[in-house]
Amino acid sequence: MPHVLVERLVKSYRIAERDPGLWGAMRGIVHRRHRTVEALSGVTFSLERGELLGLIGPNGAGKSTTIKILAGILRPDGGRVEVDGRHPFDDRERHVSRIGVVFGQRTQLWWDLPVGEGFDLLRDIYRVDPARYRRTRDELVAMLQLERLLDQPVRQLSLGQRMRAEIAAALLHEPELLFLDEPTIGLDAPSKLAVRDFVKRANRERGATVLLTTHDMHDIEALAERVIIIGHGRVLADSPVDALRTQVLAQRRLVVDFDGTPPETFDLPGTDVVERDGRTVVFGFDPATSSAPALIARLVAEHAVADIHLEGLSIEEVISRFYAMHGAGEA
Ligand SMILES: Nc1ncnc2c1ncn2[C@@H]1O[C@H](COP(=O)(O)OP(=O)(O)OP(=O)(O)O)[C@@H](O)[C@H]1O
């Protein structure tokens, strides 16, 4: 039985519409018009215990809605959602004590309370055994470097400091499942690295199952082995990150710096010149049919070569090509 099971999940929102201007607002009081937005139209996936899955997709694709349903915040309109056999919305009370949630754009701490007092409140809410709480809190405080922030009200924290405090808050009750909705949004490079490092450790060392949404492909590159691409409320791809690369483009690139002006044409079967810039030529080839060592040997034997290296597509390029292939721009 998977840790998380999502089958044909459906969710729509009803939005009140009104005509512009004062007259429109007044008409709206009498004749309310509504529009339905289909946020999820049949999302299916599952997660095994201890997996770290990246959920990505353009704005409005349905990522946050999926997390809110899995966290028991929203009730789905249809389909099946089970976490460890629990129904997140119906078993909310039992469910929240087993999960940790971080929404990058919202705080679960108390704005005016010092961080440490917020942690103590969460201990009471989750009814964590005091000795166990002290041990976990001290460990999290040390790992996330929160010592000097414990006495500061949350509103005084920088975004990076707050995010570290949020992550600690989500882990105080030692959840086995972690939902992270854009945990690195707006963070500077060192804070992003600290958050990534910590998420990786929570997954590897504590064995936490992690579902992460992000728009930062470096998060995916650094953390996830598997990604789900969601678009228009549907799963467009569910695949190991590496397999996605070959699925999108069965091409690798060989970047060659020539010692002098490169020739106009090359006699290299199975390769294309995909880019030229001064002394640098980038060749594209399919690794299934052309061998990189043979190609390199031939280039070096026939030309004066100063430097040579192989290049794959960045995950960022892979995803944008994927959206282009599936017509899945902003939903
Ligand atoms: N509370 C709400 N009321 C009405 N519509 C909503 C609400 N929340 C989300 N939606 C709509 O549902 C769709 C999916 O939104 P969702 O927030 O799940 O997307 P997302 O993939 O998380 O997007 P983003 O990357 O921009 O955060 C969008 O069309 C959005 O406008």
UniProtKB/TrEMBL annotation:
It comes from Piscinibacter gummiphilus. This is ABC transporter. One of its GO terms (molecular function) is ATP binding. PANTHER family: ABC TRANSPORTER ATP-BINDING PROTEIN (PTHR42711), ABC-TRANSPORT PROTEIN, ATP-BINDING COMPONENT (PTHR42711:SF1). Keywords: ATP-binding, Cell membrane, Membrane, Nucleotide-binding, Transport. It comes from the Bacteria. InterPro entries: AAA+_ATPase, ABC_transporter-like_ATP-bd, ABC_transporter-like_CS, ABC_transporter_ATP-binding, P-loop_NTPase. CDD domains: ABC_NatA_like (cd03267).
